Amino acid sequence: MSQQTQFIVLHISAGFMEDGTPYAGVEVINPYPKSTGMKGNIQYGSPAVKLKLVDRSTGKPNVELARKIEQAGAYLQTVNFEGVWEVGKVKGVEQMTFTILDAQFPHLELNKKAS
Questions:
Q1: What would the DSSP string read from start to end of 58-105?
Q2: CA 37 to CA 25: how far, in whole Å?
Q3: What are 79-100's pLDDT values in tens digits?
Q4: Is 24 exposed, middle or buried (0-12, 13-18, 19+ CB in 10 A)?
Q5: What's the pTM?
Q6: What is the pLDDT of residues 6-29, one digit of tens each?
Q7: Residues 7, 33, 114, CA angle at the centre, nearest 5°?
């Protein structure tokens, strides 16, 4: 079951490798920074996370969704992503991952209301 989650877009990477294999991903941060410093140390903000952009119908990387994010001017904007949270292993360590299936752009909706 898919869920909505907000992230701020830092970087989009998508296209086709020489053999024709597609790739599509986005690097994001959490829009709600947290202070996680312990014992007097300072750690504030959000680490950058790389997420996959996946076509819901094929399960393959979604280059078109990457183009849609780029054309929306989403760099450093908060974007509502629809996706699926999963537990997976990354380099042998179990982690939560979020696979993105679609995106909505609140900053564009605000621009329409202002004009």
A1: T-SB-HHHHHHHHHTT-BTSEEEEEEEEEEEEETTEEEEEEEEEEEE-
A2: 30
A3: 999 999 888 777 888 877 789 8
A4: buried
A5: 0.79
A6: 999 999 999 999 999 999 999 999
A7: 55
